[in-house]
Design brief:
The protein is an alpha/beta fold. It has eight helices and five strands, in the order E-H-H-H-H-H-E-H-E-H-E-H-E. It folds into two domains: 128 residues, Rossmann fold; 70 residues, Orthogonal Bundle (Transcription Termination Factor Rho, Rna-binding Domain, Chain A, Domain 1). Helix 1 runs antiparallel to helix 3, helix 2 runs antiparallel to helix 4 and helix 4 runs parallel beside helix 6.
Length: 210
């Protein structure tokens, strides 16, 4: 084992933090943020309209309600969350067992990476402004949906190539079985986590024995 790639929502961090704090914060500010930053969001709005013609703000609002994993939406959410994190509106939730394990693995020389449907910018905010402090120095890189769909093996093959390791040298952690299955199909090792204690390989990072 030379590297570990981890998901965020439901894995290192609570689903409720993302669903009940981050999503509503961005949803309420989509229109006002775009109106205040027209040049920064122009290409994002154009991409949304190319995917689905119509009012891009209404489209993205519906995408949030439907929990759609669409790259331009994730990019804009990250931009809105940036202001919230840096303004102290909230701090990123990371489970204490995840913090301890990540610190332990980093100290042991393992390379740590993130693969989440949230944008790379959003990932860095959650770990950079976490309740446990700045955790960004623990990570060697970040991957989002621009790498590929999380439920398709090709994304994990691309991650292995980007990291420069054989897929079998990488462990992937997620709370979604379709994602761990895709990682395994690419040749990675993978563990399914269910923090509610349901059927899974582990219920917390404390159970991972490398």
């Amino acid at each position: 084992m030379s590297a570990i790639v981890t998901d965020i929502e439901g894995t290192t961090s609570s689903i409720s933090f993302v669903a009940d704090v981050l999503f509503p914060y961005a949803r309420a500010r989509l229109g006002s943020y775009c109106a205040a930053h027209p040049e920064q969001v122009a290409s994002i709005l154009a991409e949304v309209e190319a995917i689905e013609p119509g009012d891009p703000i209404e489209t993205m609002t519906r995408w949030i309600d439907e929990d759609r994993k669409i790259t331009p939406l994730k990019t804009l959410q990250g931009m809105i969350w940036d202001a919230g994190f840096k303004g102290g509106a909230f701090k990123g939730h990371v489970y204490p067992d995840a913090v301890a394990a990540l610190q332990r693995w980093h100290a042991a020389g393992l390379k740590l990476y993130v693969f989440s449907s949230g944008s790379v910018a959003a990932q860095k905010l959650i770990f950079g402004f976490s309740e446990a402090g700045d955790l960004m120095p623990l990570f060697s890189g970040y991957f989002d949906t621009t790498t590929g769909p999380k439920r398709e093996a090709v994304a994990y093959t691309r991650i292995a190539d980007a990291i420069g390791l054989l897929a079998g040298e990488i462990l992937f952690l997620s709370d979604v079985s379709a994602e761990t299955d895709a990682a395994k199909a690419a040749g990675m090792q993978a563990l399914l986590i269910d923090r509610g204690g349901g059927p899974a390989d582990i219920a917390s990072f404390d159970e991972i024995n490398l």
